């Protein structure tokens, strides 16, 4: 019998959150945003962006990796965002 506890239940995409951590003037960040907007728009997933130049903690943690994509607060990828991989992470 499958475990149906809240930890093991699949969450619908609309209940997920994607966070794009970026900085101004970053062309890789712009490219990542295009992918995040497309995938999240297609799936109805809310997303947000955070600027590392405005947050010391994010800057200290991610400055060498931006852009960084988090899914539900956990690091999904950095530098380049693969559309298929992000879509799979949000629907599995």
From TrEMBL:
Gene3D superfamilies: Glutaredoxin. Pfam families: Glrx-like. PANTHER family: GLUTAREDOXIN-LIKE PROTEIN C5ORF63 HOMOLOG. This is Glutaredoxin-like domain (DUF836).
């Amino acid at each position: 019998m499958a475990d149906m506890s809240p930890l093991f239940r699949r969450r619908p995409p609309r209940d997920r959150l994607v966070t794009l951590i970026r900085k101004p003037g970053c062309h890789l960040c712009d490219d990542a945003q295009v992918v995040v907007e497309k995938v999240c728009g297609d799936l109805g997933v809310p997303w947000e962006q955070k600027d590392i130049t405005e947050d010391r903690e994010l800057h200290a943690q991610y400055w060498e990796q931006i852009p960084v994509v988090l899914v539900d607060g956990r690091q999904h990828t950095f530098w380049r965002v693969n559309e298929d991989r992000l879509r799979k992470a949000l629907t599995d």
